[in-house]
Amino acid sequence: MTTAVLTNQTFGGLDWIPQFVQTIDQALCIGCGRCFKSCGRSVLTLRGLDDEGNLIDDDEDDEYERKVMTISGQQNCIGCQACSRACPKNCLSHLALSL
Questions:
Q1: What distance in Å separates the CA atoms of residue 63 and residue 61, rounded to the nearest whole number?
Q2: Secondary structure letter of residue 42 according to DSSP
Q3: Domain membership flag for residue 20
Q4: Nearest-5° angle of CA 14, CA 23, CA 84?
Q5: What is the DSSP code (8-state) at residue 83?
Q6: Among residues 99, 71, 83, which one has the least CA distance to residue 7?
Q7: What pTM was computed for the model?
Q8: Which tens digits make up the pLDDT trace of 10-29?
Q9: pLDDT tens digit string along 40-84?
Q10: What is the CATH number of the domain that holds 62?
Q11: In a domain, 26, yes or no
């Protein structure tokens, strides 16, 4: 059985393989928001971490150690990788979709 990878073409006719966001390394993330600003698809959310490294559910809580980006709408990702190109710390990983 062969596995096919989702492919497409650019406007100029070049082959393009979408790479969908999979993970964000929260140890590397500095919470700058550049990836969030580059994504118009509501895929990412900035969230607080407590002093033990746990994500805080209530963003109104001022008891966070620092903020990091999280994947909140992975189903909305179109595989453009704009978030990765905007990230100064290279914390996002992507994967091609196999059909």
A1: 5
A2: S
A3: yes
A4: 45
A5: H
A6: 99
A7: 0.84
A8: 999 999 999 999 999 999 99
A9: 999 999 999 988 888 987 656 568 889 999 999 999 999 999 999
A10: 3.30.70.20
A11: yes
